[in-house]
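Hi L., both proteins are below.
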Amino acid sequence: MHNGKLRYFTAECQLILTPEEYGIQAQADAEQEQQRAERLAAKLGELNIDLDNL
């Protein structure tokens, strides 16, 4: 039991995400990667590096 719900854990006692939780986590990860890519593109732009001509 975890927070009043029956949940599954790995042998190392790590909580296994539900499909809904996994989707939320995947979306958050994708948003974080998008922000990282935008920061990198901005930095390369400051260095006058054109991403379209690499």
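That was the first. Here is the second:
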Amino acid sequence: MRHIIGTFRRNGVSDNNCDIDRKFENERLRHAGESLKVLGDTYRELDMLRKDAKISRGRDAAVSQLYDMSDVFNEYSGARCEKVTISGKKYTRLTLAMHRRGISADNITLVKKRDKYYEVSLNAKIVKTSCATAKELADIISVCLERRFIPDEASRHVINREFNRYVFIEEAPYRTIHGVARCKKSESDVSGDNFSVCTPDSIRTVMCLSDGMGSGRIANCESEIMIELMERFMEAGFMETTAIKMINLAFATENYNARPLTMDVAVIDRYNGQMKLIKLGAAPTFIKRANTKDVEIVYSSSMPAGVFERADIEETGTSLSDGDMVIMVSDGIIDAIKSDNKEEYLQGMIAAMEVSNPKIFADRLLRGVTLNSDMIKDDMTIITTGIWSRDTKNLILT
């Protein structure tokens, strides 16, 4: 399945026939997803007629795989790519501006992706000077198309005397900065918590936190596998929910259910400020609103990963604004609070902190939690992520 999806991602669609090829590709993927779902339904109905527990468990795993593969195909069929016509006036202004800089370009294409952001691709070479940078060309495109574009990370950084393909993506209106603070259990050689903060594409900032059962090397190894698989799935183009379903199934079918582990994922859309929280048995997440004492708590009652073959996922969506901060914690932070209402006590600590720098915030919160503790009884991890508008000038984090 990964090979099939990878082929679609590598080959993509041609610039000249983006909308036509994409419709055809979407239709094929949608039919494949529907067929897999029907096959899964049929498999489950047949399984109800059989009583053998071991056979039933194997069939349940197969059915889960079929459903999850169906989700993957349907997800890819929804990845929209719409070709947009550049108006004659803007096109002329763009070609003239590039000519004045000594850049020759052809096959200029403007595409709108996922109904959110624009992408410009073109063939370019230098004709008058020794070289030019992709950033210079991005600035020219931004002025002429009246949208802020930046070079795609995978594109060349320098334009030389040979035609090459360059891709420029619309810059997201929001930026994120994160900080991490952590400590391991006393007398333990390594923490059982693992985390990741990444930007798998131009849209998302993804924070992942996994807490292995107990502490030490086994817990560390299992949570590390969870995080690494999550990163690989996202790099391959999967959305977070689908990735978690596939990873959970892998842990469940490999008999990891004797040692379940949590998975906490926060996904920030840097184009519209929307955040999605996905939890498998994870601790609450706290959202500190900018310039106020308001702190929201997002709870979870779901089971950890590996307990059920069909993941017990809880999803919550919310909107973030300029200056808001998201605080993710492992169970060790909550358990260390010496209060009957642990979450509310931590909520009060977060509300009282007047710090905008995510790293300083995480460090101070960890110190506050462990201040009166003679012994660290569990691994502790805090991930803080702040979101700011790019229109904010002279951003100073204190």
